[in-house]
């Protein structure tokens, strides 16, 4: 069944085509291996793997500072993620409002903050409002900017829901607020979950902009360690903190896949019970 359905979409590759694919894959793997070897050898020639540049990471105080930076990154991300999702839902619903003034204001706000460079927004908030609280300058900037992007994602999901569902809900006497909160928004979030999680990953990575306003997140801590260590080991510091960022992003993506699979299993169970 699978092979027959696949052949409808594309021609099944023959022996020569499969050989070409294997050859292309092998050449690609060799190219990546050669690139990695060149990077490692270049760093080694420049002394970036010398023991003296890595001695700083042996101290408990430095390790604790890196842990504190990672926790500060997660704290800012958690607050910004909640804020961006709440603002995203509000802006999306506002853009679909039947009231023209509400729709116009939400549209203007979304378009403005999507066009505003995030770094400028964060720095302006820090300089004008949150001078003593750099974390809130970072959180508010991330929330507003990513909330505008999330609003467009959620609005697209709402528009993708079949119109008949909304019309049926109105026919049953539900108000627009009830239709949005009980029917359209939950379905749009499930449908657009990959895009929503993708934007949350962007939010997590954008917390690194906090170092501009002296918020002690992971990148700021890495810069501090490199600036205060013998030999200024910026490359070793990057090699230490980059895997931490990657691990956090992969964990977030894994959580998204788990939520999506759990929701799919729940929908299948409800469908089986209804049948």
CATH class of the domain at 74-214: Mainly Alpha
What share of residues are in beta strands?
under 5%
Looking at CATH, the homologous superfamily of the domain at 74-214 is MetI-like
CATH topology annotation of the domain at 74-214: MetI-like fold
- Helix/strand/pairing class, anyone? mainly alpha
Find the count of extended strands (DSSP E, 2+ residues).
Answer: 0
Which stretches are poorly predicted, pLDDT < 50 over at least 5 residues? 1-6
Rg value: 25 Å
Note the main sheet. Answer: none
The average pLDDT score comes to: 85
Termini separation comes to: 25 Å
Order of helices and strands: HHHHHHHHHHHH
Instruction: Please state the second-level CATH architecture of the domain at 74-214.
Output: Orthogonal Bundle
Overall morphology = flat
**Helix share bin:** over 70%
Q: Enumerate how many helices there are, as a single number.
A: 12
Structure description:
The relative contact order is 0.11. Helix 10 runs antiparallel to helix 12 (234-274). The chain has a domain at 74-214: MetI-like fold (Orthogonal Bundle), CATH 1.10.3720. The chain has 275 residues and is mainly alpha-helical. It starts with a helix and ends with a helix. The protein contains twelve helices and no strands. It is a multi-pass membrane protein. One of its GO terms (cellular component) is ATP-binding cassette (ABC) transporter complex. The chain crosses the membrane at residues 21-40, 76-93, 105-129, 234-259. Keywords: Cell membrane, Membrane, Transmembrane, Transmembrane helix, Transport.
């Amino acid at each position: 069944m699978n092979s027959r359905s696949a052949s409808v979409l594309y021609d099944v590759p023959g022996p020569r085509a499969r050989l070409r694919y294997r050859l292309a894959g092998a050449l690609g793997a060799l190219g990546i291996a050669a690139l990695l070897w060149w990077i490692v050898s270049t760093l080694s020639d420049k002394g970036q793997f010398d023991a003296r540049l890595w001695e700083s990471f042996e101290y408990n105080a430095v390790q604790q500072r890196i842990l504190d930076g990672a926790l500060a990154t997660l704290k800012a991300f958690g607050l910004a993620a909640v804020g961006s999702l709440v603002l995203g839902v509000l802006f999306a619903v506002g853009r679909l409002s039947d009231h023209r003034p509400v729709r116009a204001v939400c549209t203007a706000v979304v378009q403005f903050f999507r066009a505003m460079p995030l770094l400028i927004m964060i720095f302006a908030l820090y300089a004008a409002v949150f001078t003593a609280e750099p974390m809130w300058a970072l959180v508010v900037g991330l929330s507003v900017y990513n909330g505008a992007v999330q609003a467009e994602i959620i609005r697209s999901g709402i528009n993708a829901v079949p119109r008949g569902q909304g019309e049926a809900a109105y026919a049953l006497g539900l108000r627009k607020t009830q239709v949005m909160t009980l029917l359209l928004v939950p379905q749009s979030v499930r449908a657009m979950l990959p895009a929503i999680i993708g934007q949350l990953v962007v939010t997590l990575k954008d917390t690194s902009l906090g170092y501009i306003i002296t918020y002690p997140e992971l990148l700021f801590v890495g810069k501090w360690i490199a600036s205060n260590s013998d030999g200024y080991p910026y490359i070793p510091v990057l090699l230490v903190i980059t895997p931490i960022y990657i691990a956090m992003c992969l964990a977030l993506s894994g959580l998204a896949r788990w939520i999506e699979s759990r929701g799919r299993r729940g929908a299948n169970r409800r469908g089986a019970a209804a049948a």
